[in-house]
Amino acid sequence: MALANENYLKTPEIYCFDDIDKRVNAYKLLHPTAKIIRLGVGDVSRPLPAEVVKAMHAAIDELSVADTFRGYSPPQGYDFLIEKILKDYRSKGITISKESVFINDGAKSDIGNIGHVLGRDNIIAIADPVYPVYENATIMSGRAGEMLDDQKWSNIVYLKCNEQTGFLPELPEERVDIIYLCSPNNPTGTSMDKTELKKWVDYALENNAIILFDAAYQAFVSNKEVPRSIYEIKGARKVAVEIQSFSKSHGFTGIRCGFSVFPEELIVHSQYGGNVALNKLWSRRNANYTNGVSYIVQRGAEATYSRKGKAEMQQLIAYYKRNTTLIRNQLLREGLTVYGGIDSPYVWFKIPGDMPSWKFFQLLLYDYQIVATPGVVFGQAGEGYMRFTGFSSYEDTVLALERIKNQF
Questions:
Q1: Segment holding 328, helix H or strand E
Q2: What is the pLDDT at residue 198?
Q3: Distance (Å, whole) CA 158 – CA 168
Q4: Which one, of 387, 383, 379, 385, lies nearest residue 159 by Cα?
Q5: How far out from the chain centre does Cα 171 lie?
Q6: Tens digit of each residue's pLDDT (9 = 90 or more) over 318-355
Q7: Cβ–Cβ under 8 Å, residues 59 and 394
Q8: Contacts (Cβ under 8 Å, ≥6 apart) of 12
Q9: Which has fewest Cβ within 10 Å: 64, 282, 343, 363?
Q10: Is 18 among the domain residues?
């Protein structure tokens, strides 16, 4: 009889955001005419920028002609997109090699798959609360150990990240090998400044550790003291993989595209062959596991680096940031404890009256027809908090805030 991978059975049967949809759908069955406003899951609401649509239409036309038809994408991605990414890094004063960039179908895939090229005996560190994929990928790969009484895993180091730390993760007390960091952060919306991020780079350099830096929300940063890339920090290319996404900043949640940077300087140890560049391992993994992101999608992504594309992207980001600012300001006026919402599309706030987060989720849904994300789905340290996002329409955001005005 074929055997299951038992590690998959250790993760929740329903992904946390699917659980939210299940509860919302149950409410809709009972209240079919209710206008539900979603301020929870981080999906975008605005259409694709015009330059992206134009470029994708042109790409489809190319594929309809024999002379310009293209089949499989190169596993690493097309040069035309990679060159635009390199130029964008150079505009920030960062030089990386062409061989370092790998186009992907969104940040989530590489975040989950990177464990394929890392040894099982590595000690993994994640913050709590945290984006669920970091922990779930660790569990599914067999690295998590056993579940403890406090709902944490024996082989994962949980970084202190709470109100006392301003919801910024603290350095671990013990030595770790792999560190998941996200800045601007999902779910808390907080961001590390250069001084804070340098502490992590220095730690990684001193301990031969690797930082998996999730920069999916870097385009929302406006504070000059908040790095938009970890490579703004000296020495980071020796210790950090950076993962970026076009999903939220470019409206690509439905068509999927992003990229990861594996610097050639980043070395891991092999007990059989001494030291080896992680870049080479990832390249080998890609050659065997993927046929690349579609030509049409990569042409759309390329268009976002044009003059018009950049302008449209900035308009998109400004639209969502306006929503986020409205949410943040009203929650502050309500007297709530609020984090994020400045260099991030996420607002993280403390639930009034010490109500459990799933109970507050139900209250928002049934009393105000608003969907938020319970903090506990991001880890036990998220209990007692909620996440709102700025990704709904402006009109719906205003309406939602009017519904809850002076209610807490």
A1: helix 307-333
A2: 98
A3: 13
A4: 379
A5: 21
A6: 999 999 999 999 999 999 999 999 999 999 999 999 89
A7: no
A8: 19
A9: 64
A10: yes
